[in-house]
Every structure is written in structure tokens, then in C-alpha cells.
Design a protein that fits this description.
Length: 140
């Protein structure tokens, strides 16, 4: 026996549009904030230049670094020098120069740390103008 009115029962609906909107926002957020590791995929070839030889500047200090980590400042060989020795030698070579340019001549097989040590020593000596030399691709 049914005493109440016959009420039609509605089927529940699931609205997928808000769900899709939320998922798209999460997907966009993840795409924007994700960092991609590219370092393992890169094949690095160091650049060479075809420019003519730069003129010698009277206010420059030449620092050489060979593959073994031996340093030379203005053709004065220092051997396996530490940062403090390099700072003293750069200051001595700078002498009365106002703002000399530090020219780093590093061997292709020299360690990265050796070149960074020269840059740190130049900064500690108070010189901020640093440049590097490269090998010319044209044969003489």
C-alpha cells in the first residue's frame, strides 16, 4: 500500500565539465612548473672565431693555463699556484696600470677549476675586465 503520491524518481547526473576544467588547470600548472633536464642531452662544441688577431694592448695582463694546471703571468711561469699566489702575481704584473684587461689563455684540456681560479684571483686583485683568447679556425 502506498499512501504517498507517486513521485517520479530522477536519475542522478554527473557533470564532467567542471572536472575537465580542473584537470586542465592542473595539467597546465604542471607543464609550467616542471623543469626539464637538458644537460645530459646536449652535445657541446666550443666556439671558434674567424676574426683577425686582436691588437696588443699596453694595459693587459696575459695569464696562461696549460692542461696540467700550470699558470703563467706575463710569461712568468708559476707552476701549480694557489689563489693567493695568483693574486699577488697579478697585482705585481698590474703595477701602475689603472684598469688592465686580464687575458686568459687557457688550453682546451685545462680543467674548468683552473680557469675559475684565475678569474677569482683577478677579482680579488681588484680587476674586473677579463677576456679569453680562442684559436683561429683559419690556417695561417
Amino acid at each position: 500500500m502506498r499512501f504517498g503520491r507517486h513521485v517520479g524518481r530522477e536519475e542522478p547526473e554527473i557533470n564532467f565539465i567542471p572536472l575537465i576544467d580542473v584537470l586542465l588547470v592542473i595539467l597546465i600548472f604542471l607543464m609550467v612548473t616542471t623543469t626539464y633536464s637538458r644537460f645530459s642531452e646536449l652535445q657541446i662544441n666550443l666556439p671558434t672565431a674567424d676574426a683577425a688577431k686582436a691588437p696588443e694592448r699596453p694595459d693587459q695582463i696575459d695569464i696562461g693555463v696549460d692542461a696540467k694546471g700550470t699558470y703563467s703571468v706575463n710569461k712568468n711561469v708559476l707552476g701549480q699556484a694557489n689563489r693567493d699566489t695568483l693574486v699577488q702575481e697579478i697585482k705585481r704584473a698590474g703595477g701602475g696600470m689603472k684598469e688592465p684587461v686580464i687575458v686568459i689563455n687557457a688550453d682546451a684540456q685545462a680543467s674548468h677549476q683552473s680557469v675559475v681560479r684565475v678569474m677569482e684571483a683577478a677579482q680579488a686583485a681588484g680587476y674586473g675586465r677579463i677576456t679569453f683568447t680562442i684559436q683561429n679556425t683559419k690556417s695561417p
